[in-house]
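Inputs:
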Amino acid sequence: MTLRRRLFVAVAALGVAVVGVSSASGAGAAGATSVSGSLGATGAGWKVMLVSPRGKATVALADASGSFTIPSSRTTGKRSTLHLVEPNGQYFGPVVLAKEKVGSKWCAKTQLSGVNTNIGAVSVDAAGGFAAPAKWTTVKKTQFMRNGVLADAKGRPLGAGRAGIGKMSATQKKACVATKVGAKSVDAFDGEPSAAEQPGADLDADGLVNALDADDDGDTTIDAVDQTTTASAAMNPWVQVRTRNNAFNAAVTPTLSQADINSVLGTLNGSQSNFTIVFFVENPLLVGSYEREAVKNSVAWAYVDCGALVYCGGSTPTAYADRANNPTQLAANWNTYSGGLIVERGSTTDASITATGVNPDGTKGNGLTANIRNNNPQMGTNVFWVAQMFPNQGANTLANVKPGDVYTLRYGLTGGGESSVTMMLNPYALTVPSIKSINGAPYVAGTPVKAADGKLTIEFYRPQRLAVDGEDGSFRDIAGLQYGLIVSQQNANDAGCGGAAYSDATGFNVTTSNDQGAMLSPIRDKATTDEAPGTSTLKFTVDLTKCAQANWSSLPATFSVSLLGAGETLTGGYNRATLEGITISK
Ligand SMILES: [Ca+2]
Ligand SMILES: [Ca+2]
Ligand SMILES: [Ca+2]
Ligand SMILES: [Ca+2]
């Protein structure tokens, strides 16, 4: 599959020099600062996470009295935002520092200025999905940045309490950029992607930073399928779900229960997983430079810190992960894997690559494998950090593995020091497309389908994601997915039919690109709004003889295909929901 490939010039030093002499007494060298406050006793066990514009996460645990202190620095702290993570590892929402009335509107201030700051007592608005100082005047105007985000009278940013999914108009996005109170910002942090697309920036000004926002640009299209936010969502983990169960869909099975879902997502079939969460991170995004030769050895190791998430964190994590970038061989306890190195493209090695990918601290586990696309014509010699993880939670899968789960990718720099970036499990398709009929006859899973003239007309229901807070019911059909018939070949990679094989696809935009990803899923659902599951279906006709031309010399007597619903291409791949095991005979 194709990766975004971008060639950017090296970026100048990312840290912005602090002008003037540091006068912070007792703050130590390099402008050390801290951010402190108290959530009260009910906040014991919650985590307060300081997220820098570039996504660097510094996490503090609230103690038994709910007090927290986050070590920071002037450079890291400037324009950083604060976020609460619940004791179970789920993202809760942003901490608003102050609010300002501008005309008839309220603007919430979420960015710290970088100086020492004590927020004092913090009130958590459970229903609103945000927190704020108990006294609005506690945080001084020198302690937060002037830029704000539109809020209600309570100071609640518009993205809070709904996972960031919701329309933000151009006017709303700009409503609070010209406020008067707060530290003035004249510098912009630099780098690629653009400043607003960094993981810790807030592209749609809804109060949730990109890494913790399921809809980065505020157009209601979730990141998983949005074509315009692949840069800001580049570090999102993506998810693969697959089954042969045609009833694994909430439109077809309105009673689809947690137990039904857990039976598909919770167990391994042999060494194969129906449910894989994939971390796939491009080295340059970690070091802020696209100068490949300069950065290929710059990251020594990387692992995912899962905090209290019971499947990959806590005291007895269950997750398996591959050690060979092979999702069909998920058999190793991830918490005992310290990383490794894989060079793609056969035996060709690159002696200039000196990193081993192994974390010398073997107690950390949850390692990512350094994956070198050695001399791949498309990829050059870039380095990626990859882990394919199966949560292995059985009957507890849905209870314990949820969109909103927060991960911290921690990585060591070859030149010394460590850094981190925050990530979140985003809404994804947890059911698969369900076929209503083929060539006009109801589809019965397991029964071979005749395609006498080589053509199949398939009518199907969209797969669903879980509804988020603020949405009715349990599920939402996912709009805007790209679909395609995957032709299974023994001992070979997936093969698709290409856009030219599809016809009568009125509900879709069809691409005839030869791009490998587009070949697999060349027809994109024109719908753009996720609706409650109902009777709405999609329909297309595919000419299997054209798949044959692409993949076989002639059509076999009997063969098996899958129906794929794919999200937008992110780094290394995309969210996939696949109905497998559709048997076709001539
Ligand atoms: Ca948003
Ligand atoms: Ca946002
Ligand atoms: Ca996002
Ligand atoms: Ca969007």
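Residues 1-29 have pLDDT under 50 and may be disordered. Flag for discussion at group meeting.
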